[in-house]
Structure formats: C-alpha cells, structure tokens
C-alpha cells in the first residue's frame, strides 16, 4: 500500500478528485466549505448531480469520522444529489460501511458509493492509473525508502551536494504543470533540456524528477562542474542497467568561457544516452546561455531543431495562480504559521491578492513565512507585511545587499542601476563597471573581477538574457530595482562616486535630477569632456552635442565639424529625449544671427549636396516644417539657390511614398463601424427551419480598403497643406496606390470571432479558478 500519511488535507482532496473523476468519467470541481456548505467535490454547483465528500481522517478514529458524517446528513438532504459519494482516508470494516450507508442510502445506489482507503489504493495500484500516482509525488516518494538511500553511493552517485536539503524540498515542493509534462516526456523519450531564469525552480524540478526514477530502480549520476567526460565514462554499457544522468548548469555558468571540447562532450553524451531505453538524461541551463549555445553551435542547435532533444522552459509568469496558491499554502503549513497569523491571510480572501501580485516569487514567500521575519509584526498585520514585501521587498534585498555581497558586488549593482532599470548590453555595463572599479581601493587587478562578479551574482540577483546573439544584463526581479533605488538615492557618497566614474550618456539622467542636468551638460560641452562619454552611436552623440551648443548658446569653433556632420548625417535620426532641442529647433537656432556666421552655416546651407543630405530620410511632417524653414530663410536673405525647388520635390515625393508604405492598416479599422459594414454584406436565409447567415467577407474587406485609402489620401493632403503653393504644385500625390489587406482581413476575422464568442466562458473560468484557490485556504 502507498503511504498516505504524508498527504495534507489539500493533497488528499486533490488525489480523491483525480481518482473519482476517472472512476465516474465526470469532471469534478473542488470548492471551499464556505462556498458550498460542506461540499468538497461536485460536478455542478447548481444542480449537484454528483457530490463527493472527502474525509481525510487517516489519523482519527472511526468514532470521530462517524460524528463528522452525522453532521453532514442535513446538508445532504438539502442538496439532494442524484449520487452521493464518500472518499475516506481510513480502512473501514464491513460493519462501518453498512452503518455509513444507512445514513445516506437515499442518495447512494449501493454501499460502493463509500470509497475506503483500501479501495483508493487498489485503484492506484492498477497500472492504468500510474499517471495519477506520478502526479501525486508524495505517494511514490514516501512509500519507498528512497529518502533513506540518499547517501547510498550505489544509488546516488556523487549526489551529496544535490540532495543535501532534499527532505525540506520534498515538503515544500508543488508539482506544477511543467513538472508533469517533463515527467511524461522523460518516461516516453528519455532525454530533455530544462531551461529558465534564475530562481524559477530548474534544480528543484530536476531533483524531484530524479527521485521518481530512483524509486523505479534507476541509479543517479550528477554533476554541476561540467565534468561530462567522467560522467559518460562511468555509465554502464549494460543496456539493461537503469541510469539517470542529471547535468546541472550543463552549459556552464558562463557560456562564453566554455571550452569547445566541453561542447563536443555534451553532444556526445546526448547522442550516447539516446541509444539506450534505460538511460535517462536531464539537462538544465539558464535560458540565456542555452540560446547562446544554439547560436554558436550548428550541431547543438540542430539537435533541438530536429527535436532529437526537447527543451522545456520554466517561466515564473506561466506558473498559474493556483500553483502559486499551493506554494503559499505549503510554506504556511510547513512552517507552522500560528492560527492568528493565518487568519490574516484568510480575511477578505487576502490570499488572492498575494498569489496575483505581479512580484510574486517563491523566494519572497519563503522569506515572509520564516518566523524570525513575520514575528516582527502583529498577527493582524501579517497580510500587510506580505504585501509590503511583495510591493517593496526591501528586507529581502537589504539582507542580500548588506550582508551577503562583497563591496565589489554592490558597486556592480549600483553601476547597473545607473544605466538602466531593465536590461543593458553586456559590453556597455562592463566598461562602466571597470571604470567604477578604477576608483576603488584594494582591488586585486590580477584577476578577472568582471567574470567573478557575474559568477557570484548570476544565481541570485542578476539575469543574463540573449537577444539575437547579444547578451543583455538586468536584475532578476523589479523588486531588486526598487531596493537599489533606495540605496542609490539615500547613499550620497556612493552616488557621487558613480557620478565621478560616468562614462556613458545613459548614466546622466539616472544620476542627476532634471534640475541638475542642464548645468552638467553645459559643463561637459564647455570643458570638452563630452568626448570621453560613450553614446549609442555617432548620430546620437552629434545630435546631443549640437543640441546642447545651441540650447546653452555656446561658441566654440572646435565643434564646427560636429555640427556639420550632424546636419549632413544625423538630422533624420529619431531620438526621443524630452530635455534636448528637437531637430527642427536645432536647425532654426543654427540659422539665427548669433550662430549663422560663427559656425559658417552659410557654407552648409548653400551646398546642394549638404541640403540633399539634410532632407534625406526625414519623415513627412518634419520634412514639411524643414522645407518651410529653409524657404523662409532663403526668401529673407534673397539668396534662394536655383536647385532648391527640385531637391524639395524629390524629397517630398520620396517621403510621401515612404509614409504610405509605412501605413499600418489595422490602425484605421477601428475608425469605422465594423458591425454596420458586416450587416451590409450579410445575407440571411432559412435552412431547415432556422435562420442562417452568410457574411461576404471579401466585400467587407474591399469596402474597408477603399475607406482606408481615401483617409490616407486626405491625411497626406492635410500634411502638405502648410507648404507654400508653389511647392504643392510641384507634387503629384499618388491617388492609386496599393495597401496590404492582410491586417484588414485579420481585423474582420477578429470582429466576427468576438461576436460569436460566448460571453460567459471567461467569467466561468475565472470563477472556477478562484473557487479552487478558496478551497485551499478556507477549510
């Protein structure tokens, strides 16, 4: 018999739900006692055709069970189900069963409606129901002696590090959907890759998968140091020998330092284990390094492209609210949270606010349920304490930042925050960090401090993401940034140290207030130290310098080449900086009496090639404004060059076409009454006594296309209307142009889908999910 003693009440109810659903071929839903007056499982919350009452009572006497069931008689009479079942966590005698049946005989076909623990076990012992057993991991885990064998080198080979805290892990583990999918895949296919960000549960999921196969007679081999050759050589060549290999962080902590030989060894091991049905291989890696590996190695990527090895991703955002609720419940129960504290979670269904919080992580839940943390607040404030930690998890990161990190790690994090609160390119952060490092004392320059810091922080605070072959670095959770903001703003000494080491333009806006920035920018231009600062590219740098020169009325002949380069090559670049002058404002300032002659703008403005470059690629709105500005200047100076009109015509024609080609037709579809258009092209007819409708979708799309083309023509004319008449007369606005109708078709399809969709579907789903979460906490 399986060991049912380690199942808590929630887990036993979940087990009975799976058992009874299969026995009755019915979908059952779990509800809290508060919602349905005692119902545990039912097929219908309104009619109660089937009601299943679950009584755990594995450690209680039959007398206690009988008393509890007597209290249910009146409720059952009120529900009046067609079939009433009792699932009991006890073994009952024939006399016990007869006595219970007499209480509820009106609603039971036979006494077989009373399902005892023995009958549950017999059902689960049937191989056809092995999937239910696998799902409820405590059944197979505690029914074996596997936890007593974790130091047996004949079973767990070199697994001491992996299983050092396995007892605690087993109690708090929640078998999520991804765990079940991975289990099924391993059983059927033998190998898998498990990837995800730091802290999402890759290692814990891998541990629980390993334990299952250990109970099935497999020997476990484990490594986390990349020593793949020894693992492969140690595998038995006996194809009947059951073995599981777990490679933790199989691609290394930093893929860019991984040797080519290790990559080859890994590929060799994957191919080798696939030769034997009794060899299982579990690999896990950070998703970023996994993506890098696929980009770098054609053969490695090919294994996944051809599905020779399948990758499963654990994403915190994809862990369901129900799974998060179970994680919360497990921590509350495992740590024996006092009743008065627990009540604060139940009140007003506060648990729903916790599991739906955007910053929810198992790490924070673990933190707030440690006694030394929650005991600092009164029981009635426990919920507020949890929400405060989720919203502003200062205590979690304060402890990490002040007590666990080295000074060099803290400098790294504040440098990261000085650049971004999302992600920043690896090379940009590295340069800024090394500049910051140069200001610190007692730093050992003989070692690669950058790599050492990444190695230390990557598993706890930072995350590395691969984007098209480039590494981006950021913190693992927005709550880390919340804490760093406090450190950054409250520690003036550290802030000033970072300011002294700024080497990237991004850092200014994060290190200085809006009020301080103008003077800082002014000083950079005056001192010419701006040349020491990195920008996104040369266009952004030239734009910034030129903008600041004219905004602060700076005259320095050394900047003339930069101004010319900006006007020729960077005028059309779009950088959204609210504190900088716009391109039009910069050009207007350059034509003013103050700067026109000082910076020799006349040499630029009267050059055909220069004006052509200036107007090249400018969007239609800004092009019209720029042409008007230049035309007004030439007319005032009476120096209009003869080639000016022709260049304007060419650039306007080109810009109009670019504008039309860049149109997103889906943006226009919402401007029209889609329902009216569809009704105009819908035919109704009788078919077998019913009214049927046929929508002529192609006609709807055609009408929308005509309306959108007409609107686009009007928009273009409106944009050109501010031009002087002689320029308007030069233009030939296209009246017959093509637009892609794909988005229009999609918009029509979307409208039709929304019209036919049953409105109650989502509401029912949401209510069902909430009811299941309520059933966990309100007992």
Automatic annotation (TrEMBL):
One of its GO terms (molecular function) is endonuclease activity. One of its GO terms (biological process) is DNA restriction-modification system. It holds the Pfam family nSTAND3. It comes from the Bacteria. Residues 173-333 form the Novel STAND NTPase domain. Residues 7-60 form the Restriction endonuclease type IV Mrr domain. This is Uncharacterized protein. It comes from Paenibacillus lentus.
């Amino acid at each position: 018999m399986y060991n049912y003693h380690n199942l808590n009440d929630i887990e036993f109810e979940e087990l009975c739900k799976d058992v009874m659903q299969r026995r009755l071929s019915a979908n059952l839903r779990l509800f809290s006692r508060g919602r349905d007056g005692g119902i545990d499982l039912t097929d219908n919350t309104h009619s109660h055709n089937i009601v299943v009452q679950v009584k755990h009572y594995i450690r209680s006497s039959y007398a206690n069970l009988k008393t509890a069931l007597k209290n249910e008689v009146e409720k059952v009479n009120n529900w009046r189900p067609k079939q009433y079942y009792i699932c009991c966590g006890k073994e009952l005698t024939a006399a016990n069963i007869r006595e219970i049946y007499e209480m509820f005989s009106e609603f039971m076909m036979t006494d077989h409606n009373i399902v005892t623990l023995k009958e549950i076990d017999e059902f689960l012992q049937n191989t056809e129901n092995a999937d239910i057993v696998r799902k409820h991991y405590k059944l197979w885990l505690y029914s074996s002696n596997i936890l007593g064998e974790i130091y047996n080198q004949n079973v767990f080979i070199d697994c001491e590090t992996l299983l050092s805290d396995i007892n605690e892990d087993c109690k708090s583990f929640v078998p999520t959907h991804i765990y079940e999918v991975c289990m099924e895949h391993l059983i059927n296919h033998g190998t898998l890759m498990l990837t995800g960000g730091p802290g999402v549960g890759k290692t814990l999921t891998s541990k629980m998968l390993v334990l299952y196969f250990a109970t099935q007679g497999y020997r476990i081999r484990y490594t986390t140091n990349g020593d793949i050759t020894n693992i492969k050589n140690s595998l038995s060549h006996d194809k009947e020998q059951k073995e599981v290999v777990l490679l933790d962080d199989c691609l290394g902590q930093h893929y860019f330092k991984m040797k080519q030989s290790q990559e080859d060894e890994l590929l060799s091991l994957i191919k080798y284990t696939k030769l034997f049905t009794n060899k299982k291989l579990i690999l896990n890696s950070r998703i970023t390094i996994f993506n890098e590996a696929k980009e770098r190695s054609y053969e490695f990527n090919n294994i996944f492209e051809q599905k020779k090895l399948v990758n499963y991703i654990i994403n915190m955002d994809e862990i369901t609210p129900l799974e998060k609720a179970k994680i919360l419940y497990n921590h509350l129960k495992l740590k024996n949270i006092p009743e008065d504290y627990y009540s604060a979670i139940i009140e007003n269904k506060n648990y729903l606010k916790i599991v739906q919080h955007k910053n929810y992580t198992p790490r924070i839940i673990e933190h707030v349920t440690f006694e030394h943390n929650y005991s600092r607040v009164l029981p009635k404030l426990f919920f507020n304490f949890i929400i405060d930690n989720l919203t502003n998890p200062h205590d979690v990161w304060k402890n990490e930042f002040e007590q666990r990190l080295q000074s060099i790690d803290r400098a790294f994090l504040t440098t990261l925050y000085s650049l971004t609160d999302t992600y920043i390119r690896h090379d940009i952060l590295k340069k800024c960090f090394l500049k910051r490092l140069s200001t610190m004392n007692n730093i050992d320059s003989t070692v690669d401090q950058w790599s050492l810091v990444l190695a230390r922080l990557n598993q706890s605070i930072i995350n590395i993401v691969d984007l098209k072959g480039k590494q981006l670095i950021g913190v693992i959770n927005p709550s880390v940034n919340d804490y760093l903001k406090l450190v950054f703003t409250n520690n003036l000494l550290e802030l000033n140290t970072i300011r002294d080491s700024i080497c990237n333009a991004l850092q200014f806006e994060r290190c200085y207030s809006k009020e301080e920035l103008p003077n800082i920018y002014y000083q950079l231009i005056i001192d010419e130290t701006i040349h020491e600062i990195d920008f996104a590219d040369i266009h952004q740098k030239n734009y910034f310098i030129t903008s600041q020169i004219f905004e602060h009325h700076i005259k320095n002949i050394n900047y003339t080449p930069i101004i010319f380069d900006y006007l020729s090559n960077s005028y059309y670049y779009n950088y959204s900086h609210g504190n900088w002058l716009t391109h039009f404002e910069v050009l207007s300032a350059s034509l003013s009496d103050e700067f026109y002659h000082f910076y020799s703008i006349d040499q630029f403005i009267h050059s055909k090639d220069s004006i052509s470059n200036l107007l090249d690629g400018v969007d239609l709105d800004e092009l019209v404004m720029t042409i008007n500005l230049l035309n007004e200047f030439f007319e005032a100076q009476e120096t209009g060059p003869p080639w000016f009109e022709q260049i304007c015509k060419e650039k306007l024609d080109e810009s109009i076409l670019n504008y039309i080609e860049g149109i997103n037709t889906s943006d226009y579809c919402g401007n029209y009454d889609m329902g009216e258009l569809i009704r105009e092209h819908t035919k109704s007819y009788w078919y077998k006594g019913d009214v049927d409708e046929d929508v002529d979708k192609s006609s709807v799309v055609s009408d929308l296309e005509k309306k959108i083309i007409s609107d686009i023509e009007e928009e273009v004319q409106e944009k050109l209307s501010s031009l002087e008449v002689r320029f308007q007369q030069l233009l030939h606005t296209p009246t017959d142009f093509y637009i892609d109708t794909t988005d229009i078709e999609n918009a029509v399809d979307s409208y039709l889908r929304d019209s036919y969709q049953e409105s109650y579907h989502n509401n029912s789903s949401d209510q069902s999910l909430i009811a299941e979460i309520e059933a966990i906490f309100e007992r």
